[in-house]
Amino acid sequence: MMYSQYKFDIGNLARLLDIEIGNPINCMLGICKRIGISKKLAYEATEQFKAQNGDEPCTAHDIYYGMSEIVFMVAVTGPAAQKLSKPKKPSPAPCRYAGRSTTFRQF
Region 16-23: what's the mean pLDDT? Predict the structure, then answer.
């Protein structure tokens, strides 16, 4: 069952190679708008796509992989990434009363 689904998905990706896109930037922006991706992410992805592939005609497969960068951007700039980039809370002050280097809560 799993193999048949994998084979089906590979077939769909292979069919994208047969679809020629004359204006890839407008196509990418249109797809992003249709599926509800923010303009900021859409423009960032299209700029990156343009830098890598230029503004020449390409296949739908190329656009598919260009749009997969949006998933990466969301993963990097999303809430999970914000947790990673936030500085950790400062550790409690060292215990002044025990004269040790370990940290204890001050009461």
Answer: 92
Residue 104 backbone zone (phi > 0: left; psi -120 to 50: alpha; other: beta):
beta
Decide: pTM greater than 0.85: no
Q: Please give the C-alpha separations between residue 81 and each of 13, 37, 68, 86, in angstroms, as whole numbers.
A: 29, 19, 18, 9
Determine the pLDDT at residue 50.
Answer: 93
Burial class (CB in 10 A: 0-12, 13-18, 19+), 93: exposed
Measured distance CA(58)–CA(49) in Å, rounded: 11
- Cα distance between residue 63 and residue 30, in whole Å: 12
H/E run at residue 99: none
What is the model's pLDDT at position 105? 47
Burial label, 28 (beta-carbon count in 10 A; 0-12, 13-18, 19+):
buried
Under 8 Å CB-to-CB from 61, ≥6 apart: which residues? 13, 16, 17, 19
